[in-house]
Design brief:
With about 110 residues, this protein is α+β, with helices and mostly antiparallel strands. The protein has a single domain (about 5-105), classed as 2-Layer Sandwich (HIT family, subunit A). About 20% of the residues lie in helices and about 20% in strands. The chain has helices at about 5-10, 60-75; strands at about 20, 25-30, 40-45, 80-85, 100-105. A five-stranded antiparallel sheet has the order 1-2-3-5-4, covered by helices on one side. Strand 2 (about 25-30) and strand 3 (about 40-45) form a beta hairpin.
């Protein structure tokens, strides 16, 4: 855990959040600035600043995050489709420096994004 990290504070319960999903590896909660009708963040309980910090030792964690994103989509009934996004670094649009996945759905997603 990182003491100054917003997501670490949510994980520990210091900051309340509506938990859509939780297991031993991650939690999922709504984004406070949604970019779609459904916008849920999937956040690992282990603090990693970004995807760029992940290495081979994080392979299992990354797989579990993707499986959690799929479960969130089922919970939110996104059967018509959804997008999973990982923003990495300033130019990638990352604003909270704790690895997290965005699960976006409830509308048609255009391409290319952003």
């Amino acid at each position: 855990m990182s003491s100054g990290c917003l997501f670490c504070k949510i994980i520990t319960g210091m900051i309340p959040a509506q938990r859509v999903y939780e297991d031993e590896v991650c939690i999922a909660f709504p984004d406070i600035n949604p970019q779609s009708l459904t916008h849920i963040l999937v956040v690992p309980k282990e603090h990693l600043s970004s995807l760029a910090e992940a290495g081979p030792e994080h392979t299992e964690l990354l797989g579990k995050l993707m499986a959690a994103a799929a479960e969130v989509a089922r919970i939110k009934k996104l059967d018509r489709g959804y997008r999973v996004v990982v923003n990495t670094g300033a130019e990638g649009g990352q604003t909270v420096h704790h690895l997290h996945l965005h699960v976006l759905g409830g509308r048609h997603m255009g391409w290319p994004p952003g």
